[in-house]
Amino acid sequence: METINIILEGLPTLLKGMGVTIEVTVISLILAMFIGLVLGIFSITKSKILRTISIVFVDIIRGTPLLVQILFIYFGLPSVIDISLTAFAAGVIAITVNAAAYLVEIFRAGINSIDKGQMEAGRTIGFSYSQTMRLIILPQAVRRMIPAFVNQFIVSIKDTSLLSAIGLAELTLSGQSIYAANFHAFEILFAVGVLYFVIIYSLSLFSRWLERRLDVA
Amino acid sequence: MKMIEVNNLKKSFGKLEVLRDINIDVHEQEVVCVIGPSGSGKSTLLRCMNLLEEPTDGNIYIEGDNLTAPDTNINELRQRLGMVFQQFNLFPHMTVMENVILGPKRLKGKSETEAKELGTQLLEKVGLVDKADVYPDNLSGGQKQRVAMARALAMEPHIMLFDEPTSALDPEMVGEVLQVMKDMAEEGMTMTIVTHEMGFAKEVADRVIFMDEGFIVEQGTPKELFDNPQNERTQAFLSKVL
């Protein structure tokens, strides 16, 4: 009974933190999908410059820890250039850039998995490269990419907990602030875990439903 | 009128010379069959004609327009060149009807109704109007290839290119595909066909071109080429396939 009361007392704060976690994740992933798509297409074009941009971006971001990236953006950048970012903005940038690097690879592999005869058939009808991409290649490729996307989305949701390091009051930091005051770490962290699970499990269910729905062709 | 004019075409992949100095004219309503052993460059030649392969050297003119000139709008030009592939390359995420009308709708600005009317007409022509709402995965190879032809015709091309259209088919399905091509030829379509179907070439072609090792070795009417080949390489090839 005592346990439940402790959790219920902390719940408003935790739910607020959960809201921030969801907000950061949604904004970051929308931006990351866009960057991932663009750089993914860069990575398969004939242009050597575009390919290099894509490869360098992916290698740098994948080759460094996310926590370092977060600290770098929030504390490192303002010390050399004249910007001051809120923890929320820095968090969105860090999660976006990090997720984008992995999404580039998912887009690249997904697009490459489509038979090259599809591009040729589209071009032969008279479609431009980008029309063929949009109308013929991506609709097929995205279906195959859904499981990989969901994987990355789940990783990114969990990664947002690292934003507690720069003082963003997302779910993890909200929990920390509660048990720092009441010393009930077990109950509060248990509740934090459950709330993450709820977000992630809902996403899993949604993706399974989506895959079934798209499986008509 | 020259529909296709190929001048001194050369194509190399790295050090491998696939086409060495090819010259061809294809005239209006002419049906040209290109035959030859595998690796002779015949598919590459066809693919150069709509710039799926970039020529290494030489010029190609489609209805007088220089294919490789920098100011040529290749997307517009390709609309005049229908192409049928060995592997069909239908769009698997679209129904048969959607495959056929995608081009007319998106590139020619036809309304859904207009496009569907045209689509129905073309599917009737290839005998597949009852498959309009089916996805390509549920079709036989012969049916897929007939849909691919309807899809190409939907752009109302002036020239049709065929890249071994029956090579991926089970033997019993070859006839239905060749029949549609024959109908097209009879309606006066200008056609260039890379094929291994010697019977078809004999019967339908106005001119047969024999290629070997990147050269045009010999060309002539089917009667000249099949009944009285002059070059010994042509003779050797024909003795193996006829």
From TrEMBL, chain A:
Membrane topology: Multi-pass membrane protein
One protein family per Pfam: BPD_transp_1
Record keywords, A-Z: Cell membrane, Membrane, Transmembrane, Transmembrane helix, Transport
CDD domains the record matches: TM_PBP2 (cd06261)
Keyword Repressor attached: no
Taxonomic superkingdom: Bacteria
Residue intervals of the ABC transmembrane type-1 domain: 18-207
The UniProt record lists the keyword Aminoacyl-tRNA synthetase: no
NCBIfam families on file: HEQRo_perm_3TM (TIGR01726)
UniProt family annotation: Belongs to the binding-protein-dependent transport system permease family.
Protein name stated in the entry: ABC transmembrane type-1 domain-containing protein
Species per Swiss-Prot/TrEMBL record: Salinibacillus aidingensis
UniProtKB/TrEMBL annotation, chain B:
Protein name: Amino acid ABC transporter ATP-binding protein
Keyword Phosphoprotein attributed: no
One Pfam family cited in the UniProt record for this chain: ABC_tran
PROSITE patterns: ABC_TRANSPORTER_1, ABC_TRANSPORTER_2
Start and end residues of each ABC transporter domain: 4-238
Bilayer-crossing regions: none
GO molecular function: ATP binding
Superkingdom as given in the UniProt entry: Bacteria
Intracellular or extracellular location(s): Cell membrane
InterPro entries hit by this protein: AAA+_ATPase, ABC_ATPase_HisP-typ, ABC_transporter-like_ATP-bd, ABC_transporter-like_CS, MetN_ABC_transporter-like, P-loop_NTPase
Main location group: membrane
Organism: Salinibacillus aidingensis
Keyword list, A-Z: Amino-acid transport, ATP-binding, Cell membrane, Membrane, Nucleotide-binding, Transport
Annotated membrane topology: Peripheral membrane protein
Family: Belongs to the ABC transporter superfamily.
